[in-house]
Amino acid sequence: MASSRNLLVTLAAGGPARPAALRAELGVSPKTLARLVHEVGEEVLRIGRTRAIQYARTRSVEGLGRTLPVFRVDAAGSVAAEGTLRLLWGHRTFWDRPGSGTLFEGLPPALVDMAPQGFIGRSFPTRFPELRLPPSISDWSDDHRLVALAMRGEDCVGDLVVGDESLRRLVNRGPAEVAPLDYPRLATGSATETNGSSAGGERPKFGAFTGGRHVLVKYALPGDVGPARRWRDLLWCERKALQTVAAAGRPASPARCLDVDGWRFLEVERFDRVGASGRRAVLSLSALNNEYLGTPGTWTQAARLLERPPFLLPPEDAAHVRWLDVFGQLVGNTDRHFGNLGFLVARDGALRLAPAYDMLPMILAPAGDVVAPRAFEPAPPGGDTVDLWRDASRWAERYWREVASSDELEGEVRAFAGRAADAMAEMGRRLGPG
Length: 434
Fold this sequence. Notes:
By secondary structure, this protein is of the alpha+beta class. It has helices at 4-14, 19-26, 30-40, 109-114, 118-122, 124-127, 142-152, 164-172, 183-188, 226-247, 285-293, 299-306, 315-330, 389-404, 411-431, and strands at 44-47, 54-57, 67-73, 79-87, 93-97, 100-104, 160-162, 205-210, 213-220, 255-260, 263-269, 273-274, 278-279, 282-284, 342-345, 351-353. 38% of the residues lie in helices and 18% in strands.
């Protein structure tokens, strides 16, 4: 006769299952299955209703238990319950919300984006040794990410807060206003101090609240060696690229460069924050791709997929994505990975393209301690970009001309920009006016 132990073993091996499948596997009647489910209590979760019912085995994470409350912070800074995250066998999760719920094979995409990552995330285990997390975030499992989010996740990307402890920390702390004169100190301590969210990206950066707005601050070290000079120039180039995107009528994050005590800083306003305490929901293309899309090769290919149900990205936003992909290639941005494109998420799940960020000519980036010359070759239009290539190329040529004419930059950068602008102009002539 089947026992409650048999039920748990079956659910652990096969994952969530419908009642009919469980009864067939265990050889029991509906009444016996109901009794077995009752006997195991919280070790089995019932998902759905009527004919859509499934049963799943739950699991417990040390220090967290089997469930975690989820909260949402709106644009005014108000906090509201956003359901419960239920932890399931096989590292699945079920986000249980009033009137609905969603089963995920891993963490929900929003929580994937929230988890510590990039330069700021690397220092997380050192900053919070009491959490006893693996010292390298590349070795973390989803359970480690949940511990980080639930215990020290009050200032993560987006508008969600997971767990009572992180909510308590959010309520008990407000953003500490800093001035640009504080930036050298914050940069020096950015690898070990708690001064920002876990926004991704490998370049050195820290988070700050200054002038009534939340910003991510990238920085280049003082010094006269080649790599330091080049990174200072690239921060200037990133600011100019974002300004060019905005001038072209495309959404771009406001940014400015500051020089303080030999350091160069690039402030980029965060689009997931509103004033001191308000927040907006965001998802990176990387999170969307991992959960839903199936690895398209480029931003342009992803934009075509996001125009379809259930995402229904507006056609103008999809066109912006394709334009950014073309513009990025034409300004030498060789780092157009899926983490460098984001979307704002409405309450009904609708997507809108977030302002552009991390747009710069990474083709000029040092390779470690070496500043090596590289060749730049603008790509001609393809079938998915021919309708907007001409406009993007004009703005890219304008960008390179402005870089080439700036007396704030090193001669090698200006010379490269001049050649790139000429290459853009020559390709435009070859393609003709159409």
